[in-house]
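=== Structure Prediction Worksheet ===
Name of assembly: unnamed complex
Input type: mixed (protein and possibly other molecules)
Chain count: two
Listed entries:
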Amino acid sequence: MTNLNDFSNKLKEEILKAKSIAIISHYLPDGDAIGSTLTMYGAVRKLNNAVTALRSDTIPTFLKFLPLIDDLILYDEKSKFDLAIILDCGDEDRLGSKKSIIKNSKTSFLIDHHNNNPLFANYNYVDNKASSTCELVFDIVKLMGVSFCKDMAFSCLTGILTDTNRFMYENSSSSTLLKAAELIDTGLDKDYLIRNLYQKTSKQSFLINKILVENTEFFFDGKFAFSYISNEDLNKVGATRDDLDDKISLIRDIEGVEIAILVEDRFDELKVGLRSKEYVNVSELARRFGGGGHNKASGFYYKSSIIDLKKDLMKEIEIILNENK
Amino acid sequence: MTNLNDFSNKLKEEILKAKSIAIISHYLPDGDAIGSTLTMYGAVRKLNNAVTALRSDTIPTFLKFLPLIDDLILYDEKSKFDLAIILDCGDEDRLGSKKSIIKNSKTSFLIDHHNNNPLFANYNYVDNKASSTCELVFDIVKLMGVSFCKDMAFSCLTGILTDTNRFMYENSSSSTLLKAAELIDTGLDKDYLIRNLYQKTSKQSFLINKILVENTEFFFDGKFAFSYISNEDLNKVGATRDDLDDKISLIRDIEGVEIAILVEDRFDELKVGLRSKEYVNVSELARRFGGGGHNKASGFYYKSSIIDLKKDLMKEIEIILNENK
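=== Predicted Assembly ===
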């Protein structure tokens, strides 16, 4: 569906008649995934109590302060639902092993803002110009005639703040600011939210900054910055993977850098995060390696060694930078 | 004057009749000082061409991208003006050696948002609840009936963004977001602004992160974080003082830290920056050392050694933290 009003009406109709409703977002969830899940959960509860908020993965520590976070239960693949509301999933695989939720539900609705979404649900509302899924959920909740309580507003604002990096990214517009203002005006504790999101960096995350400086290399006149944090590096300062959250921004934000890549160890593969600043579409680059995401923030997993990865990346990036000269 | 409407009317009246107008802000200017100067300059020019935008100091590199920045001329103490508009100065001394502008002007207006402002101009509008002087200038410009062009909006948004650390600080409210949205809707190039403010970290500033980690010490169960970057440290990575801009946030934002202090060498004295997170008023602490500022962001200069400073600070901070237990 391309009309937000029709989509919202249809969703409300299905919510009102469903005997069981599930809300779920992607694995390795971020602030927008969890934020949109909890916002929608709060809204649906006001229409129909037969709703379960699901998680497809563990909740990152930095999001555990969100209201109603303990209501999220791990999806059991045997569960069947009348209605599934799927949030922030760029494709079916982003549900990980939990994609059975689609065939386990009579009707499915998808709300998302990623590029090239294959529209895998029965009803899909995808707007890749939206800053965040939370911004879309904000509109849909209002169109369904549900008012925002403080808790819903708190989760919704969390998704907007984290997916825009506090209104920094291009998809963040004046209307994003207006929505944030409206959410704050519900009376939510903005300062508590800000302290939890931005002023609770772990000491280990701070210590990682030193290793990040030591490991970052610059190529192609400083247009490409490449960094790798190994499990050994993490162990050196007692850090976990959560402590690497958004470290990639520190290298993208260096003057002259157009493409920033930060690689992390993940069991038997490498997690490769990509960011660009102005003119390179890194989601295209990620797709060449089987990944995806947004134009300026994307990622993929890589099965071979860091040396092979670097070699592969250097080739592709040389071509991209030459194309954009 | 405590009524913003009366103040704006009076200011407009004086602008319209003045034969010469000066606009000036504080020394060691930041984004709000320069942003408010350029915004007011743009507005006054629409009412009266006999206006000069002054600077009391050099312009930091990171602000040189602002429109009309080259119009700012260094104040010559022999100059006399009918009207001086003084922006973002918590007290007269913040004009540095340029405070003669007050006696060199027939009438002076002050617009500011710092605590304990002694109201040193003929007409003063000070609101310490405002996020920034730019937010006050936004209101005053509108009350004077002057519309925002893109350039004015660009400078005004710069002041709001820098003084709120992108809507992070407590003084940033939903009305701050509404003003920012209105400024963006003038059609200014938000992404260019964001890239210049947040994505042009110098490589040296990035390298300083390593030294910051090495030099940061934690006291009182991690509630107090203390760091010192010497001139030698700067030289090690070829950095300048500009590269230390906002590094103090990196230590304030560590979990558990309530008071963060970052000390820098400044010729024959030490520049001491103070930040707090939740319950400590660091402007009181700064005042004990002859400085000032905001409740959660303040500073002072110290004439003795770093060892003496640390000793003095430890004593005061132990008392403050005990009081707030």
